[in-house]
Specification:
- This protein has a 4-stranded antiparallel β-sheet, with no helix packed on it. A 4-stranded antiparallel β-sheet has the order 10-9-12-13, with no helix packed on it. A 4-stranded antiparallel β-sheet has the order 17-16-19-20, with no helix packed on it.
- It is mostly beta strands.
- The chain has helices at 2-24, 168-171, and strands at residues 35-43, 55-58, 61-64, 71-76, 82-87, 95-100, 108-115, 118-128, 139-142, 145-148, 154-162, 175-178, 185-187, 197-205, 220-225, 234-239, 242-248, 254-257, 262-269, 274-281, 288-293.
- It has 3 domains: 35-115, Immunoglobulin-like, CATH 2.60.40; 118-205, Carboxypeptidase-like, regulatory domain (Immunoglobulin-like, Sandwich); 220-293, Immunoglobulin-like (Sandwich), CATH 2.60.40.
- The chain starts with a helix and ends with a strand.
- It has 2 helices and 21 strands.
């Protein structure tokens, strides 16, 4: 009798042990934690959310941007390093842009991701404000793009959204430069591209504890006389015969640029007026005002 009970019990015992092993073996049956990846998609031509809405995709997952502000939130697996935005303007062709970032290890806000019909590359140099030497390892971010400065301080940020139809939003982009033991510095594009390249110039960063302040975001404020005579016109800043800055006269008839110390010529060209004016920047940390006579 005891032998029969043992024989009947043994297969059930093996089955239970097998199920336990399958459920617990190796410790690899845990649930993968996904993270929230969020941000805003912005149209470089309007400075607002895409209309119609855009699609944000990571792998097989996709969400639509909010129709009021371009916000998106998408669940992604750990170590995700990129997403793709697809926006199709009314009556136009699809605009597809990919954005890369460091591997995601927590819920992350990417900020504003700008998209547009064209892309340009921003180039320049980061330097230490106390030594004027190139600064390596600086992280530069703008419009959803980023880059790291090289050993000589030079940097190149490709894929920045741009539109030849309007540059108002483009010139309003605010970039940040960060490095451990340095104060954050800001930068913006102030010229239109030449062969797809927009020169930012030199970004000066002040070390924590340093006594030399970084330069102002802009140090030359310009206007024309007669006032408002060349709204929408182009301003070229020349050093000798070389154009080193290009910007646009805004709706108030004004323009702003940042320049290192030196002697320059401002050349204004518009459909109804043109003119030039010579000026000198002696102190990069002081604002100067110039007026360009046009006729």
């Amino acid at each position: 009798m005891t032998t029969q009970r043992t024989k009947a019990f043994f297969p059930w015992f093996l089955l239970v042990m097998l199920l336990i092993a399958l459920g617990c073996g190796g410790g690899g049956g845990g649930t993968v934690t996904n993270y929230n990846l969020s941000g805003f998609v912005i149209n470089i031509e309007t400075g607002s959310d895409p209309d119609p809405v855009a699609t944000v995709r990571v792998g097989e997952n996709a969400v639509l941007t909010d129709s009021t502000d371009g916000f998106f939130n998408i669940l992604v697996p750990p170590n995700t390093t990129s997403l793709t935005v697809t926006y199709t303007p009314t009556g136009g062709s699809p605009i597809v842009r990919s954005f890369s970032f460091a591997g995601i290890t927590a819920d992350t806000d990417l900020g504003d991701l700008f998209v547009g019909p064209e892309e340009v590359t921003l180039t320049g140099t980061v330097q230490d404000s106390t030594t004027n030497q190139g600064l390596s390892g600086v992280t530069l971010k703008i419009a959803g793009r980023q880059a790291i400065s090289a050993s000589d301080g030079s940097f190149s940020i490709p894929g920045v959204a741009y539109s030849s139809n309007t540059q108002t939003v483009f010139f309003g982009l605010q970039g940040i430069a960060t490095k451990t033991n340095y104060f954050q510095a800001n930068f913006s594009p102030t010229s239109t591209p030449v062969n797809g390249i927009v020169g930012i110039g030199t970004i000066s960063m002040t070390p924590v504890g340093g006594t030399t302040p970084p330069p102002l975001p802009t140090n030359v404020n310009g206007s024309t006389t007669p006032a408002n005579a060349a709204i929408g016109g182009t301003v070229e800043i020349l050093s000798g015969t070389t154009v080193i800055r290009t910007t646009i006269i805004d709706g108030l008839g004004q323009f702003k640029v940042w320049l290192p110390a030196g002697t320059y010529t401002a050349r204004v060209t518009s459909s109804g007026a043109s003119g030039t004016s010579n000026f000198t920047v002696t102190n990069v940390n002081s604002q100067i005002s110039i007026t360009v006579p046009v006729s």
